[in-house]
Amino acid sequence: MTIAELLPQAVARLTVAQSDEPQANAEWLLACVLNVSRTWVLAHPDYELSAQEETVFSRYIKRKENGDPLSHIVGYQPFCGMDILVSPDVLTPRPETEELVETVSVLWNRKHPLSILDMCTGSGCIALALAAKFPKAQILAVDISPKALKIAQENIQKFRRQEQVHLLQSDVWEHVQGTFDLIISNPPYIPSEIVDTLTREVLKEPRLALDGGPDGLEVVRTICNAADSYLRPGGYLALELCKGQAGAVARGLAEIGWKADVKKDIVGIERFVLAQKI
Question: Which of 88, 129, 139, 171 could staple 116 via S-S, CB 3.0–4.6 A?
């Protein structure tokens, strides 16, 4: 079958299954099967797929019908110019987290020999993005989940950052030692009662990376309460948070003497806290 014949059938299947963005997802999956860009797929409607390509595409569409995230089906997620390996054991990197990386990247010169702690690293996407931006930095990437750290290690090896990014299994501060110029985190921040209302695609991701406790701030609070002991003078704490949380967290840090600012994401939500230890 040709792309022009096959694609509408796939879109129809995803629409019936109430999948998110059926047209876009069908196009992306087909592009992955053919190892081409989505633009190429749209520009070549007369391309005839081989029997094997049709089989693989049908299998991908079936998984999407069942609610699997696109990143789990293809095995990676684009992030800051890298194709980050992902699995059901880690949170799929989001565009908002790319914004968090960009927010802190302007704070230092590229050649600065930074010491960075990436708390709740998951796939290691933040640590690897910062390693690329600061090639002289040393980065400690921490997570409680050994399964997540396995994926992070695969990404470190993929991008050849073994000399720069180091992993530590720890329940937040449990095994962390040393001080840092930057502590950065995309922690679990969704209130528990809201987690079960999320889309089925999101619910295929690890609850451990989503559920932030009754008010969503359980892990955030633990990070903030001890961050002062792990930051060098003038160092920064950078957090990604849920809508409605950033203001309260920034005020709490300001009350104990930090210089804390709230930053909006690209759609205008107060998403990030950037706080400097004075």
Answer: 139
Which residues are paired to 239 by β-bridges? 185, 273
**Strand partners for 118:** 141, 184
Residues 6+ apart with CB under 8 A from 37: 31
- SS3 category, 177: coil
pLDDT in tens, 162-194: 999 999 999 999 999 999 999 999 999 999 999
Domain ranges of the chain: 3-67, 88-276
Token pair, residue 119, equals 């708390």
Conformation bin of residue 93: beta by default, left when phi > 0, alpha when psi is -120 to 50: beta
Angle value at C-alpha 208, between 239 and 114, nearest 5 degrees: 35
Summarised one tens digit per residue, pLDDT across range 66-121 is: 999 999 999 999 999 999 999 999 999 999 999 999 999 999 999 889 999 999 99
The mean predicted confidence, pLDDT, of the chain is 96
- Residues 232, 117 contacting (CB under 8 angstroms): no
88-276 belongs to CATH 3.40.50.150: yes
Phi and psi (nearest 5°) for 247? Answer: -60, -45
The Cα diameter of the chain in Å comes to: 65
- Cβ atoms 240, 100 nearer than 8 A: yes
